[in-house]
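Module 6 notes. Inverse folding takes a fixed backbone as the condition and produces residue identities as the prediction. Think of it as a translation problem where the source language is geometry and the target language is the twenty amino acids. Below is one complete input and output pair. Work through it position by position during the lab.
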């Protein structure tokens, strides 16, 4: 299964930023964890991190034609206001690519402005508050969605 994982702004600063909120594990730790799970589960995974909204949109659009079977996205702060990312996600989801939104923290228990996700309605599932493990949960859930789609 070919899976694209997109991480948005400031996720490259995991282990540096707000350690009391995000912990001390680094972005490299997260990538290693994802790659190990991908190997163990026979997933082909591409991991992208960018601080730029347009690059996120370009990656989503490229996934439509490159054989990607599912997308996991942590849009970072773009979660709360990027209708452009929502539109890109919706464009590929209605054309058969399942999408799961992931957040390391429980966004519903944080600042008021973080509680709304404008991107989640374009996704099949949202996983929040599970730390780095949420990505592994998302990979397994995405695999189930892909298999379900293939069996139809």
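Target side of the pair, the amino acids:
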């Amino acid at each position: 299964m070919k899976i694209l994982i997109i991480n948005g702004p400031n996720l490259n600063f995991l282990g540096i930023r707000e350690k009391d909120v995000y912990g001390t594990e680094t972005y490299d730790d997260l990538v290693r964890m994802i790659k190990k799970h991908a190997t163990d589960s026979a997933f082909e995974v591409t991991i992208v991190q960018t601080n730029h909204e347009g690059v996120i949109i370009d990656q989503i659009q490229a996934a439509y034609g490159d054989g990607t079977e599912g997308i996991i996205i942590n849009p970072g702060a773009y979660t709360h206001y990027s209708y452009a990312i929502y539109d890109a996600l919706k464009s590929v989801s209605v054309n058969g690519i399942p999408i799961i939104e992931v957040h390391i923290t429980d966004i519903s228990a944080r600042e008021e402005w973080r509680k709304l996700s404008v991107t989640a309605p374009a996704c099949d599932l949202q996983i929040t508050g599970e730390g780095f493990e949420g990505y592994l949960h998302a990979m397994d859930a995405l695999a189930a969605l892909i298999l379900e789609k293939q069996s139809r």
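Reference fact for the lab report: The chain has one domain: 2-151.
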